[in-house]
Every structure is written in structure tokens, then in C-alpha cells.
Amino acid sequence: MTKTPYFIIDENAIEDNLRILDDVQKKAGCRILLALKAYSMYSTFPLIRKYLYGVCASGLNEAKLGKEEFGKEVHTYSPGFTEDDFPGIMKCSSHIVFNSFSQYEKFKPMLKGKDIKVGLRVNPEKSVAGSKFGVYDPCTKDSRLGITADHFNGKSLGGITGLHFHCLCEQGVEPLEKVLKEFQKKFDPYIRKMTWVNFGGGHHITKKDYDRKKLVKLILDFKKRYPNIKQVYLEPGEAVVLNSGKMVVSVLDILHNRKEIAIVDTSIESHILDALITRKEPSPFVPEILGAGVPGEYKHDYLLGGVSCAAGDVIGEYSFRKKLKVGDKITFLDMAHYTMVKTSTFNGVNLPAIMLKGKNGKTRTIRKFGYSDFRERL
Ligand SMILES: Cc1ncc(COP(=O)(O)O)c(C=O)c1O
Fold first, then answer.
1. What's the pTM value of the predicted model, to 2 decimals?
2. Distance 289 CA to ligand 1 centre (A)
3. Quick one: CA dihedral 93, 96, 102, 103, positive or negative?
4. Ligand 1: which residue has its CA nearest to atom 5?
5. Which residue's alpha carbon is at the smallest distance from atom 12 of ligand 1?
6. Which residues line the pocket of ligand 1, CB cutoff 6 A?
7. 199-216: string of b/e by CB count within 10 Å (b at 16+)?
8. What domains can you pick out in the chain, each with its CATH number?
9. Is the pLDDT of residue 131 over 70?
């Protein structure tokens, strides 16, 4: 039995998502990339690359991983490339997307003669995130992400073949439709000069209620309107591995201070950072627990507290059917994306081990972590 805490990723669940994504690719004639920032457990890349066209990377390390372990298209975008990293990024990338004209001008001479497609990230200034996860809204006021249309005046687009936008977060097709309308309205003459467009990530395509028919129609209509566009890309992260990973932890102690408190062998700051980042949002992300409910739903309410000494290391309040006891296992659901990639060893808390349930149903340990992983990064 593996020691907790550990992530367990299910390849069959990933493949269910990949089949859905592939159906969209085929019907819409588009290409879907895996966003490595959301999920980069490369032991599953042999499966994912059977379906998807490549990856999108946020800098040199992800681009290298994409080239070495995925091996298809690598689209690299960063708000700021450095001179040190850029030669390596060029070696690994099929596409490079710049966040400003100044960055493009700076690196343009290095790109001369290279077989790399160059794009610009634009900001359609259409905020659709609403009150949900404002912290992840790329079109928020004063956003640094993407070039606004007014900055295109008088600029030469020589050498640029693609435009990229990313405006969504865990959203359906209706917000995409709104963004697309604005993108077309503001950037139409520039889109007409391009050969590819990237609609970014944040599309919850594999979610049950996602309107995939409408997505296909939107893409087909876009391609009809712009016959010059040979390739439409989408780069979701979350949708690729939605509901395909869990994190299992153990109860270490039960305390009482006004409320029942269970101490578990994880930590919000070390292992579940997304829940900390969105804590002040109007609808914060609270990780779901298998078999547990919201406070009051079942008989036994507990605050789940982490093992670090940070006062705020409280994952949330949950209710359980049975009283918790020391040694009980607790399973957090949907932990594959934006959880594993953000873990740290804050407070010396061990990183969760990584397990893989393969397509044959057998489970194997991919990695275990210990003292050296804590020590080596400091
Ligand atoms: C530029 C870009 N592309 C793709 C993604 C992936 O988004 P998601 O995992 O929500 O689909 C992100 C997420 O922040 C992003 O910033």
C-alpha cells in the first residue's frame, strides 16, 4: 500500500476525455494542444499524443518537456522571453507567440531563417470570466496579457503568421462566442493576413453539459469567414484531464476547538494551491471529497486542516456520514490539473507520490519524493 499523500491518475479517464476532444478535432477540422501549465505528467504523454497535435508551453522548461516527451507541435507563449532562454525555446518550438510588439522586434533577428511560425497574443478586451475566478481573468482591467487592438495601428505584421487569444477559464461555448465576436470585430483586417489562429484554453469541452455541437459550428463558421486561416488551434489544459486524477490523504489526528477539526497529511499551501489562490474569490474553488458533502449535509462536520504550521492551512469545511478517525483515507476528486503542477515543499511537507492507473487497470508508482527533493531546491 502506497503511503499517503499521493496522486493517482487514471489513464482510462484521460482517454475518455481524449476521445471527446478528438471528435471535436475531426468534426471542426481544428487542432487541439495540451496546455502543459495545467498538466505535465509526462508518463501519460504516449497516450495523449495519440489524439492531440501537440502542447502549448509557457517558457523554456515546458517547451523542452514538450519536445522531449510529447514530440509533436510545441507552441510557446510567455509574457516575457529572456535572451538566455530564447535560443533554447527556438530549438524546442514549432510556434512562438509574443505578448507585445517590443518583444517581437527584440527577438525577430534571431528568428530569421528558422522554421518557426510566429504569432502575437492579442487581448480582445472582452471580460467573460464574470465574478468567477477574477484572478484568472486575462481580460481584466489593466491586464498585461495580450496586445490590445489600438496598439496594432501603424505596425507591420511582416513575419507574423498567427494570432492567439486566451480569455476563458472553465467556461462553456457561449462566452467563447462573445469573445470570438469581439476578436473578429477588433482584429478583422489582421486576421485576414494570417494563416493560423489559436483560441487559447479555458474551454471546458469534456464537461458533461458543454455544447460541443456549438463549438464545432463556431469553428467551422470562423473558417468559412476567413478562408485564409488554414489552422484553428485550441489549447485546453483542464479539459484534457478533467476528472481523471485524485489525491488520497490520511487523517492524522482529530481535535476540537469550537468545531471538530481533522488534521490530514497534506497542506493547502504545499499541495492544493489553487484552493488558496481563489479563496477570496466570490466563488472559491473548494476541492470536492469523495463521499463528503457541504457542512450540515451529513451528520458529522469537520474542518480539514493541513499538516503545515501556517494558521491558514485549512482546506475547508466538509460533512461526512461517519465520524472520522485517525488512519481514515480521504480522497480529493479532480486533482490532475493545476494541483500536481503547483505543489511545493513549503514547511518541509513531503510532495505527494505520483501513481498511475494504466489502461490495463494496473496501478504503478511513477515517483516518490523525500528529503532530497526538499533539500535540492533550496
Ligand atoms: C495562454 C493559456 N493557454 C491555455 C491555458 C489553459 O487553460 P485551461 O487549463 O483552463 O484550459 C491557459 C491557462 O491559464 C493559458 O494561460
1. 0.97
2. 25
3. negative
4. 201
5. 201
6. 35, 37-38, 56, 77, 166, 169, 200-202, 235-239
7. bbbbbbbbbeebebeebb
8. 11-241 (3.20.20.10), 245-335+343-376 (2.40.37.10)
9. no
